[in-house]
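Predict structure. Chain length: 394.
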Amino acid sequence: MYKRWDTLLPQELVDAIIDEIPVEETLTLQACTLVAQSFYSRAHKRLFSTAVLRSSRYTHHRAKFDPYARFFHYMARTPNDASQVTDLRLHDFYLPISGSWLTEDEVLVPAILNLLPNLESLAINCLDTSLSRAIMASLRKLIATPKLLNISFSKVLFRRDSLSFLSLFKDSVAPKNIQVHGGLKYYEGIDDLPSTGVNPINSLAINMYPSAATDFVDCLLGSRCPLDLLTLKRLEIFSMWMKNAGIFNRLLRHLKDSLEELVVHTTNTSARPIELGRIPKIECHVACKNTCPPQPPLVALAKIFGTSTHHLEYVEMHLRLAYAYEWDVSQGEALDDIMAQVKHQVQMFIVVEGNATTCNMAEQVKASLPKLSARGIFNVETRVIPTMGGSSLD
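Prediction complete.
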């Protein structure tokens, strides 16, 4: 029986408290449903909002242990709980000798997707495997609904023309947020694809090896791509070596007048300029390696930004240092000239790994960028992640 004092707390406060509990802490959320009536509704909704299913061919063929089968049977019995699921994450783990059951599944995953009417986010995580025709057909139908907004594929292969990646979006209507990590082949040879991109896309994240990224960009820029790239507002790219920036520069040239935000993840091992066009907001994450010859962080940043920065309004630079770095004021000259053109705000966040100190690091960085610092729009935060536990923020 619920306590009578459950009405003493404002419902808005109760909801705010429960919303702070990570969805992964299912036991905590289950306990919250038993606290009071005012806790139940929000905790129950959050408890079922995210479903994470992990399986393999071994467990899949043992229905008693297979989380996919158990989840399906429970959702089929409790449609109210099924309506609470807004985020579904599917993981397939397998050994090379056994292969993936997702390549053969014609029933279970499509049935699960059909049971969840309010799905807003879907993630499929594989180990370089393709999906069955039935799963692809279900995904195409699901992506066509306006409620599903976020789609993430990790190491999913699209090998055959009839199972093309682009075919998933041919009937899409609402703007989508798409993440593609890994994967090898993305074909566009589908007869019933529209000849021009008409389906909106809100954001796109690309994290691939160079050869796969090249194929994917070719696919996006192809004449039969069903996505309207000019509706893309946010692009996130991952490239360990910016010597491969040319792969993405082709895409950036196409988006130069429409893209609103660009996020870049790279290292200082090789820095080449990205074509910014008229993009107003840039977020750049650079993992600084102790290269030979060394590439100073500020020099690497200057090379990445290049010279076409006069349209920049907001810039965030994230540096992760794997070593203690001695800041040389003279190395910031090129970056200072670039960042001095930014209109509104520049922020730099520096994380140092190991037992180094960040004492006076912020002041040293600002001294390396005097023109930018003089404008009063520059802020630097430093943080240390010690080798043995703990962290600090200056």
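Summary: Confidence is low (pLDDT under 50) at residues 389-394.
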